[in-house]
Amino acid sequence: MQPERGDMEGEPPSMLWGLDPIFSAFARLYIKDILKMNESCQVPGIYFYRSHPISKVDVLGTVVYKREREDFFCYGVDDGTGVINSLCWKDEQWREHGEPVKASKSTVTNTGGFNPAEQLKKLLQAQHNSSHLEIGDVLRVRGPGKTSREQREIRASTYYKVTDPVLAVQIAWMLEVPQLYRKFYDKPFQWSSGMHDLNATSAPVTLLEQACSLLKDFLREKAVERFRPYDLREQLVPLVSSIPSASTSTHQEAVTNQSTSKQLHALFRETLQLLEDEGLVFRKVISQDQVFQVTENDKELHRVTRDIIREDSRREKYAEKGCHVLHILSSVRQSYSQNVSKMAMDVVLRSLECNSEIISTTDSHYTVL
Amino acid sequence: MLPAPGVFYFPWEISSGAVQEGTTVRTFGKLKCYQPADSQAVLSSQHASTQHQVKVHTAFVEPFNPILGAQYIVLGDLESTERDGLMVCARVLNCVDGVDLTLLQSAINEQRKYFHDREGEVNTQ
To answer: Coiled-coil stretches, from where to where (chain B) (predicted)?
Structure first.
């Protein structure tokens, strides 16, 4: 609640509104609060609940007032905290078919077959039923708030009658809304931190992330197919040497006293582990001599995978849906390398799909045309 | 003009006279009896081992299908007459038989608690 005028002047600049997720959401506010919200002095039609800019609201309540006009209904909705008018447009489509719908009951013919015209009538009837409410019905309405003739109202973008014979929907709503208020609406949005995030999206924050993106970039630019760890370790040297001795991250505090080479080694190992977990690199053969394959650039693996999918998609068993990821994975493991991880498999499949060499038929099935 | 909002009150708050006349209320109870001739119904509910009754004037919601013993929700203005005493002049009377009353009560309390906390917060500021 911010009834003072003084707060209005303190409203955040409209440039920043989009940073607040509530701005683009349908806010489930109490009607009492919707009625009290201050309109923005920068952009009419936008309101402020505390410091949150509100563009549209979502309301559930009992219809306690009804007025019908040629083009729209005006329903007074009561959620137990306030009553607000909501302007609900009638559906153009329905009006054109208005007469046949009413007559549908008399023309029902029991032929037993599927009759599209009949079904359409039923559909329209159902639509009619859920958009025509009487006093006492429960209405859910979403849409932007407006102020017309000094009265706050909701211009419904969606509205429908809620069938709630045992109040389950209303009770769930009543339990949920206070939580939303406590967790989101009543918490002030940190504009400054939002801006910080915005600036930070392009620059990784932690050392590990920096190291990770550094290695990824290097592997991509140089199109590295395989590497041994000591070949790449040098890449991270600038990162480690640039760390100030009084580093902030806890991980670093522990190792500040160790030599730079140890830091470098630890960082490199973690980075490599991360890349391996993401499936970006894998070891074809586990042996003393560590050789890492770069999944993205492993042409042989791509070829093997494609061939497996092409061959197996011809089989009757997989003809309809294509091959399942796990089936592809186990075939690849048999014919290529035991150590291909599921994540690495996903990377290969994604890259093949991007090149339109394979097609996904479901979330986890692939085929070749 | 829009009517005042029907705020949830427990039947025992209404029957004890804690709610002012003229308030718009929303409450619940089992339909105990209905006299169409007088347009009068009685909703009863149990709380802390006593029965509480709320009289309802039903002229505005008739005709309706009275199911004795079923749970109803009523929304209306609290009015007092010399002859009948305090009664809810119903604008909405819905049968909600099968409603989870415990859950409904906790939802009402949850909402009240939220507003209570919020107002407390504003006052301390």
So the answer is: none
